[in-house]
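pasting for ref
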Amino acid sequence: MVKYIIKRVLYSIMILLLVSMILYCLMRLLPDDYIDTVLVGQMGDKTIAQEDIDRIKQIYGLSDSIPVGYINWLGSALKGDLGISFKYGYAVTEVIADHMWISFGVAIVAYIFQFIIAIPLGIKAATKQYGAVDYTTSIFSMIGISLPGFFLAILLIRIFAVGLGWFPINGLFDATVNWEGNGFGKFLNIIYHMILPMVAIIIGSIGGLMRHTRTNTLEVLNQDYIRTARAKGLSERTVVYKHVFRNTMVPIVTMTAGIIPSLFGGMMILEQVFALDGIGNIAYNALAVGDIPFVMGYNMFIAILTVIGTLLSDITYMLVDPRIKISK
């Protein structure tokens, strides 16, 4: 186990190194950078000499060639320094640490509800194949898969916030209320504001997992050992939730590797729609002005989540299926 984990960690480091190289090259190949889009643009009708522009780019590290710039960035990143955000004026690690918890909280809650809702419904649809439950869940999953996240978010705002007035349109909490000394009230207000964003991301994410669970369950139900278990007189509930469920989880574990990173990535657009001050919204605004240090830090953050999720997914295989052996 230890040797396997060490080997996978080394592979993950190689992957992260390659990803960082590709990301840095793509960022430097953007048509405009922070100097061109912001600093020079703020001059208005005033002219700025090219040598002044070059000097500013040198200060920001944008005048170096791509290989030299990447080596400098990598050397600093290995020391834990991702640079200073051009747009926000603070260390990239500090900006990420300050804003990631909003996105992280929504993503984790959505992740938990995604499994609580999708897996039981997928199993129920498979055991009641071609019944009312199966058709209903299939339609619901297709809606979740087909509708873009931003469209679903706008639809929820239009119905439940603007139309019915049940929920706030946007924001993390009521800015007009003085929450000083009322931390619990502010916490409840944040949860109230987070209902629509969480519903939007849950509906958009459970469709694929629900269909995947249904397909795997149908495959397991047709296995010989399931027919044998029924022939022994076991109740249908025992057959489904003891024998079928455990074997259904084996391929589903594969999906868990990319769920959390995908939730963080999907939050970028949702945070724009709901005006949430999360890491996705911050990253979007930084990308719009060519903030290379912050966008690099954010993408590496997502990449690290992905490789960690993949490693945990491989290890979890052994927990759901003892037949799987780790090759050293």
